[in-house]
Amino acid sequence: MSDVFADQAPVHATGEPAIVGAGPWALAWRRLVRNRVAMVMVVVLALIVGLCLAAPLYAHHVARTDPFQSHLDATTVVNGKKVPVMQASTSGLGLGVTPIGPTWDPRHYFLGADDQGRDVAARLLYGGRNSLLIGAAAALITCILATIIGLVAGFFGGVVDGVLSRFLDVIWAFPVYLLAISLSTVLIAKGFSIGPFRLESGSLFLPIAIIGVVYIPYVARPIRGEVLSLRRREFVEAAIGLGASTWRILWSDILRNVVTTAIVFFPLMVAIDMLTEAALSFLSIGVQEPNASWGTIILDGQGLLYTRPAVALAPGIAIALTVLALNVLGDGIRDALDPRAKLRRTD
Amino acid sequence: MLRFVAHRFVSMIFVLFSISVLSFLIFFATPGVDPAARIAGKNADQATLAAVRKDFGLDKPLPVRYAVMMKKLFITRDLTSYVNRGAKVIPQVTAAAPVTLSLVLGAAVIWVILSIAMGLLAAVFRGKPIDTAVMIIGLVGISMPVFWLGEVVNLLTQSRFHHSPIFSWVPPLGYTSFTSSPFGWFKSLFFPWLTLSVLYIGIYARVLRSALVEAQEEDYVRTARAKGLTETRVLLRHSLRTSLIAFVSLFGLDFGALVGGGALLTEVVFNLHGVGKLTFDSLQNLDLPVILATVIYAAFFVVVANAIVDLVYAALDPRVRRA
User: Fold this and answer.
1) Which of A117, A197, B169, B184 would you label with A291, given CA atoms 20 to 30 Å apart?
2) Which residue segment(s) compose the domain that A211 sits in?
3) Is residue A223 part of a domain?
4) Rounded to two decimals, what is the model's pTM?
5) Number of domains composing chain A
6) What is the dihedral of CA B16, A213, A216, A35, to 10 degrees?
7) How far is the alpha carbon of A44 from chain B, nearest alpha carbon, in Å?
8) B 140-169 → A contacts, CB under 8 A
9) ipTM of this predicted complex?
10) Which residue, A42, A93, A107, A99, is CA-closest to A72?
């Protein structure tokens, strides 16, 4: 934020109105928009989100199938001929059935079927909604809670800081997947209830809350460090000297300076959260059947890997593409908001 | 230094204690969840439930239960699985540990060598197409789910191209111990190593590149150049050496985290019966005592590994000791 004046033109002696200097946000925005690669990634992300939002349209009007019901006896049309979705196996004893492979026809099992005869393309779009929702919501929880914890710990110091920092240390030392697995194992089957609150076992809020909580230290620790150094800055001392209230200082002097950190972390956290969601769902402790996410579809495809690889390949490509776009966009946002690279990714 | 060691030791003990309490609370005191029913497994009868309650002291107050649990884990080491009737848990964990260590060690060798090579390459050709290409490869590596990458590798090496000469040597999925056949061990772990290392190659190459680029601007590098040292010598003896400090501390953390459960997904996909696979199998039949044991043992490993890294770091860099 230090080069606020870089773009400001000098006041002309002729009395022409001086060009108004752009604020830090406007400057960051301009830097981001000029970053072509980041803008391409914005388009890619918008496309992916748009496609996933259109999932019901695709399922009801194009593919005409219910992706949450099994269709073991269904038939479909390939090259104008009617064929069963679950085809009798031709190898081995010929006893099993193999789901139909990709037809590359958007109206009839574009990417083939899974072992329940469900349309993989439709499930991929519906699954994408859950993956994106969990990634974004968990990242939001992480960034908001981490900002609050970092702010309180760094500003008030003393015992408050001691307790909060030790708490962060413990979560930090706990391997992320193990913590997530422990929480999921206990919560996923029966849900969670505390007082009037009740989280049902199939609820998407469970993976969101679990993933959101386990990554808090990754964002809270750098924010706490920044608050610590901001607290000793002259403008904060000046505000204290002027008699500003604690909340006013927290709000307008500290929070406004650390909020960029939270914003820089947000897209990177969405990326990490989506990978974590996929991993938990793959371990069957994330999104629960019949709901889908990209992770659960990879799990569905595992048994069909050698016969119908498209089932597992498609969601993996979707995850990799989305996460790649988020990472590149995240780098762009960091370069725009934090040109001196105070924050470096060391995860 | 002695004060630093003492301080670090106390904080390690504190974190170990907190982690054991935290995992204990998650498993035994989550509101609305009956721990006896969870430990006994699905559809357990009343007699088993009663046995579980007695065995784990579930009718006693929380601190007593915690003590009972810790005694079973570390002192008598007789934690028993109820789902897998009567199987002792701790020997299973110790039997699985060499597999996980083999996997992580091999992957670590690969990722350290390749990421240093890629980081150096990118930093030397900074701003050139090679730099961009290397960084894009790194980003792609970071963006792929590791279990999915493992499946793609399996698809290619075990199925689609298994009959071609390139992959015909790949053995079926599973682990061959080093003592029974060193070459078989290498062959069975080669692709799991590569798969596991891809993510870390990406991260480490990026971290090393930015550290190198920053080091190139430092005064001592300018001095080294002014002395007339060759560019290679400046890069390897001056820039790289300091850049490796961040790299080394990151390595300690990741190595610990991988041994402590991070390699779980790779073990599952390649059917390697390590600690991660043990956790996964217990997850499938909800064998809570095994999960609890692997979680606590792994978390302890990570915490101790981190403490060792900090000590090594402090020994290397005196500035850390005063912080």
Assistant:
1) A197
2) 40-57+120-345
3) yes
4) 0.86
5) 1
6) 140
7) 15
8) 140, 142-149, 151-152, 154-155, 158-159
9) 0.86
10) A99
